[in-house]
Amino acid sequence: MEFFERFAIPHPSPAIYASMVAIAVVSIAIVVGLTYFKKWGYLWREWLTTVDHKRLGIMYIIAAILMLFRGGADAIMMRAQLSAPENKLLDAQHYNEIFTTHGVVMILFMAMPFIIGFMNFVVPLQIGARDVAFPRLNALSFWLFFAGAMLFNISFVVGGSPDAGWTSYFPLADNEFSTSVGTNYYMIAIQIAGLGTLATGINFLTTILKMRAPGMTLMKMPMFTWSALITNVIIVFAFPVLTVALAMGTLDRLFGTHFFASTNGGMDMLWANLFWVWGHPEVYILILPAFGIYSEVISTFARRNLYGYKSMVASMVIISLLSFVVWVHHFFTMGQGAFVNSIFSITTMAIAVPTGVKIFNWLLTLYKGKIVMTTPMLYSMLFIPLFTLGGVTGVMLGMSAADYQYHNTMFLVAHFHMVIIPGVVFAMLAALYYYWPKMFGFMLNDRLGKIGAWIIAIGTLVAFMPMFISGLDGQARRMYTYSEASGFGIWNMISMVGALMLAAGFALIVYNIYYSFRHAPRDIGSDPWDARTLEWATHTPIPEYNFATMPKIDTYETFWDSKKKGTTLFPDKIEKIHMPNNSGIPFIMGIIFFLWGFSFVFAMWIPLIICTLGIFACMAYQSFENDHGRYISIEEIEETEKELGGKR
Amino acid sequence: MKLKRALLLAVVAIAAVLAGCEPLTVLNPKGPQAEVQANDIMMSIWLMSGIVIVVFAMLAYMLIKYRSSKQAKDYEPPHIEGNKWVEAVCVGIPVLIVAYLSFVSVQSNYKVEATPPGYEDKEPLVVYASSSNWKWHFSYPEENIETVNYLYIPTDRALEFKLYSFGPITSFWIPQLGGQKYAMADMVTTLHLAADHPGEFMGRNANFSGKGFAENTFDVTAMSPVEFEEWVDEVHQTADPITEEKFEELLEPGHLGKMTFTGTHLDFSPAPEGHEHHQSNDEDSEENHENHDEHEGHSDHSGH
């Protein structure tokens, strides 16, 4: 019995017990359902062992949507607790755990897989490739992310959630002040998912640099691919810092080192610096692919080429460079003095220039266009004003002297939600609507989609604009309660209304998926939006080899030109195609990594050693396995092509 | 139509900030540093509102003018690569705005990191403000007084807070007197403040520090120099001296009411300043002076 005591929740509540029951019921239902419908084989063959970038992309996106609801439930609980002064819905400990998991889940397990999911699905199609450079590594990336996400998510029912904030500042996150295993979960779950992300970065960098279709020079790449390229460069440079920081944090917590302790020569400031040396570039890892999505969507529905292609690329390169030299603005108040603050204040505000260029380029893309207001376009058009509000408040925060007053307040919370929600979440929703027909062969209902977009946009304003005010009125972030006399009540009540609107908006999206699945027509062709880039030159559904023959690229809108000017996109004859085989190794490694992480969290050394050996065994097997992939014969390709509507 | 409604909502929200029935705490400064910051904030709000209006107007214009429903069926949008001059304007204007803001920002940085103007004639009042879970300890070395969770300050002198922590990183913040600064366990940071007028202000730890964070507040009372002197005398007559045992007790995690002591804990538990100065042998006059204080405190302690 003693052995199992460590898994108990240190600070339980009825809601947590209810969640345990719910998790158990859902798990049993899934197992029973799969068995009853005899879908285990299908699941294993088509999804768990797949190395196809399209299927991995879809799995990333499904995971991201699940995590969106997990993080959203956290958000609703927080807003409910704060909606009235001295509210007793949650106590301090629960509130602390909830805002910590909300932050981690939304950034690392919602936004990240969302963008990586779309990168997976779209990038190889946009560059005319048959898969990514290392398909099996790609599958491993997904399963590592998924193992990390699941490990993090069970924390609240097994052993307790982390409670030191998503920034997990030391010494608060050290054993002395965070006594539960929660912060171990933070250190190890993010580590596992982070390794997956790092592998993704290397994989996509190689893919984009080496696997573009003939004729596609760098300056003829679609803008989303450009944004993915730059994002992956940032990933490759930024994520190792996180890896190291988390490893040092793990050593501090589990092996008694003092890297970040305030005694024995440790330095708590070191964690803050390392965290944000990764953390600020991370913001751009999220926002740049979102910018790429907007560029595609706006250009498609303005029926015009993207204005200022070169300056779009240049601005992203400049943003990526600046993203590494602004991290100190997350702690202007650490006492580094006027000179250092001045430098980082200037670099921070300088980011507004390339970002502004992008905003103006999108506006100028609309100029002389023929704007069709579909749901993805509506999200993009709502993004511009809302993101501008978030962006200009970012410039205000960049003024370091004034930041002494904004720092750690709701003003800051309002700012980053006003950039991340319109910037990243709207982009992901736009992309979801935009690429849905390519993924699933039917379109999501446009009317429901637009209603949802309006509810989400207005909900965002209602939820977060009041926080600017309460922040300037002195409401610090992360306070689980406040007094009536403070006068924060009214603003938090308005925020609660906005949060409920957001919840309703997301629920409507789910309903839309259900509704469209039932009612939407399936004969939509392969290019339902009349789009401009290469991914729309594929059939729907996309055959596993993507393109029967390699496209030939002349401009950054070759597909559009082939439609308008009748140029030939696919000049070559069909030849046999080399494809990678499925593999169970990445999935198995994901499971072992999950167990490895779980053992690590609870400092169970023998299972940890066994799992470590298991991981190395998988790697050895992988290294010595003789798998050269397989060929798809010309006949098979011709048959598939005929079935899907002939060679385009 | 809907877009307009959304825009209207945003404008109303901004107007509420700007107009505000009663002034928001941060925009209602009672000291020179907070005033510098409030001025920066208001200036940037106006400037940014201008940018927001330009972007909103451009977007509205494009959306109204170039909707497909307003155009001929066979209209084919032209291919436009970009224009050097247009892009120069798109870069140039933001550069000018950022340059101006940087200019203001750098100046303000040096203002808030120094004794405020008009207070140079008198030596600043040094107060050591240290946090422990979840309390604030204020030590007045000059007056030889220590308080818990409340702060009395005179209005005629600049204030120099020496911040450090007995636990997690905290942030010392009195919004109406000026912005915050971190208090950390392994170094001392300095925050320069001053109060213009007598009054009562809210002070708090702004940086999340665990379970008791929300209630980690303190009261600040600014008073005339005469009243301040009277208070100091009164404390010396009525309060008990702080002892090492008593202080250890105070450091226990939890919440405490207001407390007053004579003497300061700095005598037996000096602030973590000067660690780095030891090695670097910094000869900067002010820093050096503090070093001496610290050394004396230290030798006292070892003599016990």
TrEMBL record, chain A:
Catalysed conversion reaction: 2 a quinol + O2 = 2 a quinone + 2 H2O
EC code(s) of this entry: 1.10.3.-
Keyword Secreted: no
Known cofactor(s): ferriheme a; Cu cation
Location within or outside the cell: Cell membrane
SUPFAM superfamilies: Cytochrome c oxidase subunit I-like
Membrane-spanning segments: 15-37, 58-78, 98-125, 137-158, 185-205, 226-249, 269-291, 312-332, 338-357, 378-402, 414-436, 448-469, 489-514, 579-596
Membrane topology recorded in Swiss-Prot or TrEMBL: Multi-pass membrane protein
Pathways per UniProt: Energy metabolism; oxidative phosphorylation
Domain (Cytochrome oxidase subunit I profile) ranges: 38-554
Note accompanying the cofactor annotation: Heme A3. Binds a copper B center.
Signal peptide: none
Keywords for the protein's UniProt record, in alphabetical order: Cell membrane, Copper, Electron transport, Heme, Hydrogen ion transport, Ion transport, Iron, Membrane, Metal-binding, Oxidoreductase, Respiratory chain, Transmembrane, Transmembrane helix, Transport
Classification via PANTHER family: CYTOCHROME BO(3) UBIQUINOL OXIDASE SUBUNIT 1, CYTOCHROME C OXIDASE SUBUNIT 1
Function of the molecule: Catalyzes quinol oxidation with the concomitant reduction of oxygen to water.
Family, per entry: Belongs to the heme-copper respiratory oxidase family.
Protein's recorded name: Quinol oxidase subunit 1
Species annotation: Cytobacillus stercorigallinarum
TrEMBL record, chain B:
Mode of membrane association: Multi-pass membrane protein
Spans annotated as Disordered: 258-304
Biased composition (Basic and acidic residues): 288-304
EC number: 1.10.3.-
Transmembrane stretches, start-end: 45-64, 85-103
Keywords: Cell membrane, Electron transport, Membrane, Oxidoreductase, Respiratory chain, Signal, Transmembrane, Transmembrane helix, Transport
Protein name listed in UniProt: Quinol oxidase subunit 2
Annotated ranges, domain Cytochrome oxidase subunit II copper A binding: 122-234
Family named by the database record: Belongs to the cytochrome c oxidase subunit 2 family.
Localization terms from the record: Cell membrane
Gene3D superfamilies: 1.10.287.90, Cupredoxins - blue copper proteins
Free-text function comment from the UniProt entry: Catalyzes quinol oxidation with the concomitant reduction of oxygen to water. Subunit II transfers the electrons from a quinol to the binuclear center of the catalytic subunit I.
